[in-house]
Amino acid sequence: MKRFEILSKRMLNDNITWLVISAPLVARKAKPGQFIILRTDEYGERIPLTMAGHDSKKGTIDLIYAAVGRTTMLMDQLEVGDCFADIVGPLGKPTEMEGLKKVCVVGGGTGNALAYPLAKGMHDAGIEVDMITGFKNKDLVILQDEFKAGTDNLYLVTDDGTAGEKMFTTVKLEELIAAGNDYDEIVAVGPPIMMKFTCEIAQKHGIKSIASLTAYMIDGTGMCGGCRCNIGGEDKFVCVDGPDFDGSLVDWDELIQRSAYYSDQEKYDREHVCRLTGGVRYND
Amino acid sequence: MINLQREKNPMPEQAPDVRNKNFLEVTLGYTEEQAINEALRCVKCRKKPCMDGCPVMVKIPEFVAKVAEGEFEEAYQIISETSSLPAICGRVCPQENQCEGVCARGVKGMPVAIGRLERFVADWHAANYGDEEIKPAKGNGHKVAIVGAGPAGLACAGDLINKGYEVTVFESLHKTGGVLVYGIPQFRLPKEIVAAEVAKLEAKGVKFETDAIVGRAITVDELIKEEKFESVFIGTGAGLPSFMNIPGENLLGVVSANEYLTRINLMKAYKDEYDTPIMHPKRIAVVGGGNVAMDAARCAKRMGAEAVYVIYRRSAEEIPARAEELHHAIEEGIIFHYLTNPVQVLGDDKGNVTGIECVKMELGAPDASGRRRPIEIEGSNFVEDVDYVIMSIGTKLNKLILDTTDNLKANERGGIGTDDKAETNRPEIFAGGDAVTGAATVIKAMGAGKTAAAGIDEFLSK
């Protein structure tokens, strides 16, 4: 196996891809909730991605991503046998599981892919796991078989009702709490706005909430400070203090604002790359 | 024959109005004639204060004498006895506080331009002998791990490989060089020079493992117990950027100097072919007065900013930046607000920075650092219209290694605790550079790396 070689590639739907990559140094210590930073090639930016899984014995890690930005679109051009220029990790603190008996994991959109290792990790650790997976429509639904195997109860909801029940994840969560489920913790993984509402529901019912945050960052070791966010009035770095934080302490409005900082530039880049080259720039 | 000229030979450099629009090196280096003429200014004084002023004790009078004779390669060999990275030190050392600060010629007139001569010698060697074959050193069978490929780690690796150790350097970033590549800009230290120094170490047999984060992927204890390294040197650098904790600091357009510089230097955001996102703001405030602040301000100008303000709370007298950087920054059109301190960053309803509110300061009695303490002048607040703010007010120490290494003790600053031989409370573990002292200089880090190499050699020779 070459360094950071892609060993398998599987399209989960039109937009979401599951890669298994050789990265023994990362895999040997990886834990659910941790992330890596990768670079596709010499010209690529460094982007953080939460690991969707890993196999310490085989020395591989799993990445599930949606091709939404320049780097992830470039990643889609890579095939089995191709290699990433760089993958560093595991970064961030692993998700805390100690003392938990029953949790509800709520995943939104691509966030479901990142919620998968958390749910499975907790399930494997003997914690009772309810999981709500929410998507816009049936075409975007992913990983239902994996989730079924990795949770105690799985609930599928879509915004338009084309798969599972027609409702938002937050409504399902309210339902499950109202039905008497006694959760020690609610874990939210997805778009910031969805995590915000999920954590607010948890708070309303006096349940601890954990949100797995993503942010712009460069090094992933605390050096750049780009990923700082306001947690309970204090600045914390997502890369070293997180990525999991108590959802009731997160300043969601600030986080949502900060997470869109480069969106104009990204939009331009996206069009720029594809218009010029169809996604691939360097063939050497 | 001594050259009695009082002034240093001026350094050829790009004109300010030209260079503040490109990332090419600002200073061009002495010609052979200029170097010889400058070297002849050395009066060969008996006390050699310059050597004591140098953290790695370069044999300055000896190499300068060789330059004066036109024996440039011999001069290089003399420097190489003690310094592993002269092309870098000649460019980035704060010579005015070190060798040149105590030079006898500086009493009346300017000191000998030791830094410029060091750079000349290193560049001359690279141009004339750069492709010479380097033979790997003869091994002594001992394995040493170095954590961090910055100046401390590279200096330590250089000394150890020369002594025959099997050396592996672990680096968390994708590129070696540490602050030399992510922090110091291309126009001050071309990255090709750092790459050449690293290549030299590789040719001698040093192994570099990039993308390897010690403390997470593998711990220091695992390096010792599982990977059988007999000694470990920790040179992981300064760590987390400090912020001021003033209102508005998380607005869009407030970044740390570390982030801004890393995007530009390591991630080459100034080159079109790189994907790295970066903003191109028009009016920028840089808060702080160190070398990092100067680098950020000068990069900002080169990235197309119309106005760049350096906001520093003390006066021009106390500014910690290297004299040459300050001089260059002023020439390039950076505007300095001395005795000024930000009180809040202002933003619009979308969260974008629109200005920085500052207060004027005056200097009071000296504080613990010996410098006069700045005090706010009440009612002197004013707003500078800016759309971007770069915080460059120092760093806090990163705890990763301390938190993940068994029984490794911290010092009173929160860095890794060491004695003056760079040895920690664990006899097989050594540490040095910013990871121990907090933010300091490249040459001090190199000095610490060399001290540690000597300590490791002593420890493993027992």
Description:
The complex is a heterodimer of chains A (284) and B (462). With 284 residues, chain A is of the alpha/beta class. Chain A has 2 domains: 6-91, Elongation Factor Tu (Ef-tu), domain 3; 102-259, Nucleotide-binding domain of ferredoxin-NADP reductase (FNR) module (Rossmann fold), CATH 3.40.50.80. Chain A has helices at 24-27, 70-76, 111-124, 144-150, 169-178, 192-204, 238-241, 252-258, 263-277; strands at residues 6-11, 16-22, 35-39, 47-50, 53-55, 60-66, 86-91, 102-108, 128-135, 153-158, 165-166, 185-189, 208-212, 228-231, 234-237, 244-246. In chain A, a hairpin with a 4-residue loop joins strand 1 (6-11) and strand 2 (16-22). In chain A, helix 3 runs parallel beside helix 4. The two termini of chain A are 21 Å apart. Chain B is α/β, with parallel strands linked by helices and 462 residues long. Chain B has 3 domains: 16-129, Alpha-helical ferredoxin (Fumarate Reductase Iron-sulfur Protein, Chain B, domain 2, Orthogonal Bundle), CATH 1.10.1060; 143-239 and 397-460, 3-Layer(bba) Sandwich (FAD/NAD(P)-binding domain); 241-395, FAD/NAD(P)-binding domain (3-Layer(bba) Sandwich), CATH 3.50.50. Chain B is 33% helix and 16% strand. Chain B contains 17 helices and 16 strands. Chain B has a 5-stranded parallel sheet with strand order 3-2-1-4-16. In chain B, helix 8 links the parallel strand 1 (143-147) and strand 2 (166-170). In chain B, helix 2 packs across helix 4, helix 4 packs antiparallel against helix 5 and helix 5 (72-80) packs across helix 7. Chain B is globular. Chain B starts with 15 loop residues before the first helix and ends with a helix. Chain A binds chain B through residues 25-26, 28-29, 39, 43-46, 70-71, 85-91, 218-226, 228-230, 235, 237, 240, 254, 257-258, 261-262, 265-266, 269, and chain B through 172-174, 182, 210-213, 216-218, 237, 239-241, 243, 245, 249-250, 252, 255-256, 258-259, 262-263, 266-267, 273-277, 279, 350-351, 398, 400.
